[in-house]
Amino acid sequence: FGGIIIAHILMTSGLARRIAYFTILKTGGSFKGVLIGIMLAGIIINPFVPSVMGKMAIIVPIAIGICEALDLKAKSRGASAVMLAAFLSIATPRLGFLTGDGGIPMLMGIVTNITQAPVSWSQYAVHNLPFSLLFSAVSIAIVIIALKPEKELENKEVIVKKYNELGIMTSNEKKVVVLLILTIIALITDSIHQIDAAWIFMIIGAVCFLPGIELMDDQQLGKLNYKILLFVAGCMSIGTVATACGAGRWIADILFPYLAGSPLYTTVATWFFGVAINFVLTPMAALASFTAPITEVCIQAGINPLPVIYAFLQGLDQYLLPYEFAGLLFVYSYGYISMKNMLKVIGPRLILSGIMIALVAYPYWKLIGLF
After folding, report:
1. What does DSSP assign to residue 323?
2. For FRET with 93, which of 107, 309, 316, 338 sits at 20 to 30 Å CA-CA?
3. In terms of Cα–Cα distance, which of 338, 355, 356, 314 is closest to 146?
4. Residue 131: closest CA among 365, 370, 368, 361
5. Res 47: pLDDT
6. What angle do CA 49, 108, 325 make, to 5 degrees?
7. Where are the beta strands (DSSP E) in the chain?
8. What is the mean pLDDT of residues 32-47?
9. CA–CA separation, 365 vs 351, rounded Å?
């Protein structure tokens, strides 16, 4: 709920748009620079807005504006590249933050219920952020290499004009900047003060209503998207009930012969399972349904479940068709991306994800003591 409030003030204050244009400008006026700038904007926004669709609502209109300003025709390589960069800027780095996706706190909550070993916001970042940032760089590199635009983009005048139209920072934007700085400081130091990330977001959300701050009021409160709260709560209950009634252990017994093995085998096999199950379940439903069984499999095999669950999460982030993930469907539905161009990016990205889980993520998790 706090995350929804923060997402709302980011958008209504105009700060989200300013962040996006600023990062795009700072990465240069070339087409490659624009794509890198979009990725950096997504990374900055990601930890503060748990809703994927909320983040898509921030970044996609900016991407469409860039396509129109640079005269990139719908379904061309250039337009497809910009829109896929916008999607990947949200989808890829979000897995590095405990608050990057509404499903991640649910996922970690299910694991904690079984292991009785909670993971803090900062611990989760240490476990996942380096790999997520590296894979974000790889993902945007694939877009740059695979979808070079049909014409060269020589200048950044259009983006400069749009940024200048925003004018000087308003007082509301400055207030939001201060609140975001306080939020990230509180999240990074959670291992010291022991305040759960959810409460940090709620406290910051409450501060938005205070006299002198006044970023939220009764009218703005009525405009929030409350449906996501019901959706997340419903998904969370699936995993909780499955654990309580023993269904998780029952499914784990079925999966055990296929997933159990050496730590490396179990990690990679679980990644493959995530990729496969994504064809028939949404990522949120898959997390709610299979987090507990996979955790139980790891416990039975004498393996720390955390890195295996992280690999499962990475597997669920691989897509071949738009219907597999609401965020991808949202971006694709605007008609700027051709299926051919999309497959040129997400196909190689899927293959590289599996390779990097085995050759990069697994050694890293072993290095930091998770195996």
Report:
1. G
2. 338
3. 338
4. 361
5. 83
6. 55
7. none
8. 86
9. 20
Q: What mean pLDDT do residues 165-187 have?
A: 86
DSSP 150: S
pTM: 0.75
* Alpha-carbon gap, residue 103 to 85, rounded angstroms: 22
- Residue 351 to residue 318: CA distance in whole angstroms: 9
Most confident stretch, 237-241, 295-299, 319-323, 349-353: 349-353
Tokens of 333: 């539905």
Model pLDDT, residue 107 = 87
Token code pair at residue 350 = 């899927």
CB 288 within 8 A of CB 238: yes
Residues 6+ apart with CB under 8 A from 50: 3, 4, 7, 99, 100, 101, 102, 105, 201
Mean pLDDT on 45-57: 77
DSSP 173-190: HHHHHHHHHHHHHHHHTH
Q: Identity (one letter) of the amino acid at 127? A: H
Query: How many C-alpha atoms does 44 have within 13 Å on its Cβ side?
Result: 22
Mean pLDDT to the nearest integer, 157-180: 84
Do residues 204 and 214 lie in contact, with contact meaning Cβ atoms separated by under 8 Å? Answer: no
User: What angle do helix axes 2-13 and 171-188 make, rounded to 10 degrees?
Assistant: 150
* CA-wise closest residue to 110 among 238, 1, 3, 21: 238
pLDDT at 224: 81
Q: Which residues have C-beta within 8 Å of that of residue 74, sequence separation ≥ 6?
A: 67, 335, 336
CA–CA separation, 146 vs 42, rounded Å? 21
d(CA 308, CA 370): 10
Question: CA-based diameter of the chain, in Å?
Answer: 62
